[in-house]
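Predict the structure of NAD-dependent protein deacylase.
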Amino acid sequence: MAIWTRIFARRFGHRNLQNLVLKQTQTPLKMSEPRWNSDMSAFREEFAKAKNIVVLTGAGVSAESGVPTFRGAGGYWRLYQAQDLATPEAFARNPSQVWEFYHYRREVMGTKEPNKAHLAQLSDHLAVSVVEQKSTTSFIPWETGLRLEAIAECEERLRKQDRRVTVITQNIDELHKRAGSQNVIELHGNLFTVRCVRCGTIKEDRNSPIVPALAGRGLPDANADSSIIPEKDLPRCQKSGCESLVRPHVVWFGESLEEHVLEQTHTELGRCDLCLVVGTSSVVYPAAMFAPMLANKGVTVAEFNTEETPATGQLKYHFHGPAGERIPTALARHPSEPE
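Done. Here is the predicted structure for NAD-dependent protein deacylase.
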């Protein structure tokens, strides 16, 4: 039995897990027949009462910061998509190529910043008070000078009210932490940590480039230099007496999430009374199961996405559009909150 199945079956039961998996394989709703609930006013009332909020985020949040996802139409690094390179088999076959791919992603993050979904922004057009009074199914413009709170600011604000906000992210770019979020569970690890393939030593490494041999390498153009870098010149373990090859300490396709990460996630989902699912396709397991599991036990779940997902029909709310437009409104200070 997979680790994640064992951990989450303790809370939700094997039969419920099986039923949820079956629901997840159903065809999502057609865009021509929207049946989702986009009542922002109603969601805001539930938000005002929630004590333990979980924000589950995926690649869509980072994409709004210009972070390439290397998935979907046009999402190629040279001639490859992420699922072609982010595997143990790909690394064993060609560690030079895989390290070029991750080196490029590390370097790109030096040019990217958290976006409106991560951070509070100054609004432009319409007051949040309107949101409290009126339901909407389209993007709510913002009023000049009104400060809207996004994920990081919301966490800090609610902490002072003895309320908890936890980010559970599938992203490996650390944008949530850079935005100021403190309670962050990185399901798939992060780009700036490496692990020795021999001794297992895990170490943060923020060198740029991570090794001299990767300087100027990794460009995504199909005609870029792809000559093999000798393994001895690739990132190596710094532990005395080891000096073996290291790999990115991220979860690749075909690998299991770390058990302590799953245990943390299990704990946060267990006390969650409101969940926001932001910018995730709901197709990568086990994260794809989290929102439907919560909805199945009666927890309110709101999806924020530019498209429908396999989970949309199982959730109470769906807010259509970019996260940077929707999340600041959803998490803004509610009139019932203390000043």
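The longest helix spans residues 95-109.
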